[in-house]
Design a protein that fits this description.
By secondary structure, this protein is of the alpha/beta class. It has a domain of about 120 residues: Rossmann fold (3-Layer(aba) Sandwich). The strands form three sheets. The chain has a five-stranded parallel β-sheet, with helices on both faces. Strands 1-2 form a two-stranded antiparallel sheet. Strands 5-6 form a two-stranded antiparallel sheet. The protein binds adenosine monophosphate (AMP).
Length: about 180
């Protein structure tokens, strides 16, 4: 059931209770927000997709992008809810046709993401979805890919935002929305 007047919006606390925090994963000092415990909960999963989709109900969206890999858990369901198409942004050498690539900075070294060159038409309205906004490096690179293809980034949406990492500042040019803030 979509979130509407008869279904109260889920509280932050009820959804946060479904997210497992794993200290020191994948390396010491990182507190990992594990959303598999949210995904397996039938109400939590639906409420998350509904609440994120509801935020974009009045936004023109032609295409929803999911960022490999955990963005794929949410973006296709949101695309269906919003009546949009779905486009995967992938790690290098996975997409079979002509791609556009972007390199971005990690804590140590660089990484790369790719999109099919024909995945987005000029002027299409694109919503970018991932599970976690941390430093914003990944999602800002994906916004760069969309702009290479002359798409219009209408929003970047996340289930979780780690506010202390100030990723939002890196995305200041865009409309950024997150469901749960830590
Ligand atoms: P960033 O580019 O720093 O914003 O990192 C975002 C990407 O890394 C997302 O795709 C997340 O899935 C993942 N990520 C970063 N930090 C965490 C964390 N503490 N817990 C879970 N996933 C994370």
């Amino acid at each position: 059931m979509p979130v509407n007047a008869t279904t109260p919006a889920p509280t932050q606390e009820s959804l946060k209770a479904l997210i497992r925090e794993v200290p020191d994963f994948p390396k010491p000092g990182i507190n990992f927000y594990d959303i598999t415990t949210l995904l397996k909960d039938r109400n939590g999963f639906r409420e998350t997709v509904d609440a994120l989709s509801e935020h974009y109900r009045k936004t023109p969206v032609d295409v929803v992008i999911g960022i490999e890999a955990r963005g794929y858990f949410f973006a296709p369901a949101m695309a269906l809810a919003l009546g949009a198409g779905f486009v995967p942004v992938r790690k290098p050498k996975k997409l079979p046709h002509t791609v556009r690539s972007i390199e971005y900075q990690l804590e140590y070294g660089t990484d790369q993401l790719e999109i099919h060159a024909d995945a987005i038409a000029r002027g299409q309205n694109v919503l970018i979805i991932d599970d976690v906004l941390a430093t914003g490096g990944t999602s800002s690179a994906v916004a760069g890919l969309v702009e290479m293809l002359e798409g219009r980034v209408v929003g970047l949406g996340f289930v979780i935002e780690l506010g202390f990492l100030k990723g939002r500042e890196k995305l200041a040019r865009y409309d950024v929305f997150s469901l749960l803030q830590y």
